[in-house]
């Protein structure tokens, strides 16, 4: 125990002297949370739109008002021809075009389908998907209004589907993204800092000086891990405060559960960092290998894209990423207010990751000593 405390004391002294690293530990998460929290918005609004109204009727103007009132389409240009609509979209000045044919009002009065053509620039997939969905929804709502007027709701409607979104009814992107950013920040810090820090000590020769002392490998490993666990908790606390005070993210679950279950994720991330430090020979190699781990974590864990929509092979590959399970934990506790009983599978998996990573790291460490 005394040997572990001695290593802990050495690590804290080393961290206190390395002010740049400590500053990075506090400032980088703060900057990332503020920057990404404001920048990442999955809800696309104010799509620049060009309109070619050949009907010029009250009916076409009413329909156009429905598009602009949705907040998704901003009419930035009134075109006088199809060619002008094409030119505006080709040049990127507009990402959507709404075209009313000359017979739009006449068809509407006759009761025949009145067509409205909506052209969407699908080179940006996210914008295109939202524009298509909203345009279809507006068309459906306007059609229902006309049907309701005709039948006067006398006999009612055959179906009454009522959608009630839970946990984030207003669809606020920050509520979904900010908790996930905590997982990204902890992964980056734990994996990157641990791997580089240990490799740096090996390059300077201070690690070998420790190895010639009576300290055992597991004692050295515990002494190395504990300070980073404390740093991880400081980061989580700062990030939760920023998320709550700046982005008004509600924390519906138990903070105690969140802190307790976060320990399994921090340990798994640290184990991965130590494993990388055992493989890498230089700090540059450790950095490159850490980024090789971070990129799949960001792309495949469900942070940006839903895992359910991924191909089966990629889906099963994402099961090997610790962040995948932590996102379920933090979103579940913060947004849904669920507790440990709902998250047993994720916790057990993170525990398995921690044991596997730390065991392999310990064995490789012993092998190097030998």
UniProtKB/TrEMBL annotation:
Kindly list the GO CC terms recorded for this protein. ATP-binding cassette (ABC) transporter complex
Q: Where in the cell is it found?
A: Cell membrane
**GO molecular function of the protein, one example?**
ABC-type transporter activity
Topology with regard to the membrane? Answer: Multi-pass membrane protein
User: Which residue windows are transmembrane per the record?
Assistant: 20-40, 174-199, 225-246, 258-280, 286-306, 313-334, 340-360
Stored InterPro entries: ABC-2_transporter_component, ABC2_TM, ABC2_TM_bact-type, ABC_2_transport
Instruction: Enumerate the spans annotated as ABC transmembrane type-2 domain.
Output: 128-368
The lineage's top-level taxon is: Bacteria
Q: Name one Pfam family in it.
A: ABC2_membrane_3
Q: Which UniProt keywords apply?
A: Cell membrane, Membrane, Transmembrane, Transmembrane helix, Transport
Q: Which family does the similarity line name?
A: Belongs to the ABC-2 integral membrane protein family.
**What is the official name of this protein in its record?**
Transport permease protein
Q: Which species is this UniProt entry from?
A: Thermacetogenium phaeum (strain ATCC BAA-254 / DSM 26808 / PB)
